[in-house]
Amino acid sequence: MTSEKSLKEPEVNPSHPSTPRASHPVTMREVAEGAGVSVATVSLVINNKKDARIGAATRKRVLDTIRELGYRPNALAKNLVSGSSRFIGLVADAIATTPFAGQIIHGAQDEAWKHGFVLLVANTEGDEPVEKDAISMMLEHKVRGILYSTWFHRPTKIPAALQETDFVLVNCFSPDSDALAVVPDEVHGGREATEILVRKGHRRIAFINATIPAPAKDGRLQGYREALESAGIAFDPHLVFDAYPDQEGGYGAVEELLKRDVTAVFCYNDRMAMGLYDGLKQRGLSIPEDMAVVGFDNQEVIAAHMRPPLSTVALPHYELGAAGVRLLLGVDEPAGSPVVKLECPPVERDSVGPNTLTAPRLP
């Protein structure tokens, strides 16, 4: 039979190293009592006041007690005293829910960690009141600065609250200010996409552009024209036409495309290329034997798993996030323009095989 005494909790000595940690947050006063010093002395040690007259033995005793009791300093209180914190904010409109743009968060998070910072992320879904509250919360936490990001490359209006701290625009820019920004180099990307096809010997290269106004629409077209000019190929406006930038848009462009006697196509994005694949195969045409195809974005869930795998150009989302942090911390400095443009690397796969130079025609 178990005795009543054996059911009692064992008595513990709060100052003994083997004492279990308290179930409530340990206070600075408890640390002071455990170390046998004043609360003021504990505060000086926690805040690492080098000029404080505290002996090495006393400082060690306080630090040992902090570890033994599991004391955690009030980070917010320290931030208010120092005026800054080890946090970097990231406010985005829908970036956390898109299949590929979430890499911006990944890149920013990795780069922040390299420099001793933690990323605070707020996904606002484009809701202005939510955005305002998110920025206010980050300012209250004395973040080192804020990255303000959009899920696709576009001009944006800078929220007024951002002016209260350092900030960098990521994947967007402000045409009305000299705010620091980091964006994809759309012209470079359009040039790289077209050059993949030029290197295969193609001369009749169509470009299916988007119907929606955006820096990507203008930039990729400019890159396409520059690549043709560099290769000595005359620009033919009849080989450029617009379609809605999704799978249906690409599918619907097939019939008109085949009337233009082209051997290769550069699509505004990978989803458009997916629709183009469907339309060509439905007509009994093969890729790349009858038509070489290049997309844009390098959406891994699309491009790498198409048959054949799609050649494309990658948007540098991971590097956009990382570069934004480096600009915010002053590790990198913009050269000339406050808008830093990052190259879009080509990803060549099997959709651009040897060129037959025979234009497919409507069955």
TrEMBL record:
One function term, GO molecular function aspect: transcription cis-regulatory region binding
Biased composition (Basic and acidic residues): 1-11
A Pfam family per the record: LacI
SMART domains: HTH_LACI
Domain HTH lacI-type: 26-82
InterPro entries: HTH_LacI (IPR000843), LacI/GalR-like_sensor (IPR046335), Lambda_DNA-bd_dom_sf (IPR010982), Peripla_BP_I (IPR028082)
Keywords tagged on the record: DNA-binding, Repressor, Transcription, Transcription regulation
Transmembrane segments: none
Record has Repressor as a keyword: yes
Record's protein name: LacI family transcriptional regulator
